[in-house]
Amino acid sequence: MIMRVLWAALLAGLLAGIVVSVVQAIKVTPLIYKAETFEVATSGAQEGSDGQSHADGEHWAPEDGLQRFLFTGLANVLTSIGFAFLLVAGFALSRREVDWQKGLLWGLGGFAAFALIPGMVLPPEVPGATAAALETRQIYWVSIAAVSAVGLALFAFSKVTLWRVVGALVALAPVFIASP
Q: Strand pairing partners for 54?
């Protein structure tokens, strides 16, 4: 049985990673290219001894196009598999019967707690602008994710209506608190 669960997590992570990569290539990558153009123009890149342009701390990076898409896709697939294993661990700890519909709900709950709600409260910084110190933003993100996860767990697993309402309010509370 454990092998079946592990294979299911691997397959779910692989499929999720592929979907994320395709959506990212269509919606996000063009924005990243524009941001990089802006960043290079404002960074004052200097010419190195090898005759190529180098910014401070520059290192190898995949070339734009297929190579970059494949490396990004690999990172997305591995990350998605990692999240799938975390979901499987959550299933095991809950000791509840889980089918594909409940698995999908768990996945959506994880997305809401770790991406959607923190992203609504603490959006990405515009290139070249600093909204707050990195450490402050990281602590704030972890706090938002933890509060959202606790609230969603209360909402999903409580049998008492009052606790479900409290869970929903706790999960959404970070949206109403100012970010740094």
A: 46
Give the integer Cα–Cα distance in Å for 172 and 134: 23
Query: Token digits for 57?
Result: 């701390």
Q: Angle, nearest 10°, between helix axes 2-23 and 100-111? A: 50
Q: What pLDDT does residue 50 have?
A: 47
Q: Residue 179: what residue type?
A: S
Question: What pLDDT score was predicted for residue 44?
Answer: 59
Cβ atoms within 10 Å, residue 84: 24
Q: Which of 88, 134, 93, 129 is nearest to 107 (CA)?
A: 88
Contact 179, 118 (CB under 8 A): no
90 near 149, Cβ under 8 Å? no
23-37 average pLDDT score? 82
The pTM of the whole model exceeds 0.90: no
Whether pLDDT at 42 is above 80: no
Non-local (6+) Cβ contacts of 2 within 8 A are: none
What pairs with residue 53 in β-bridges?
Answer: 47
Query: How far, in Å, CA of 80 to CA of 98, rounded?
Result: 19
pLDDT at 176: 82
Rounded to the nearest 10 degrees, what angle do helices 2-23 and 66-94 cross at?
A: 140
Indicate the average pLDDT of the chain: 81
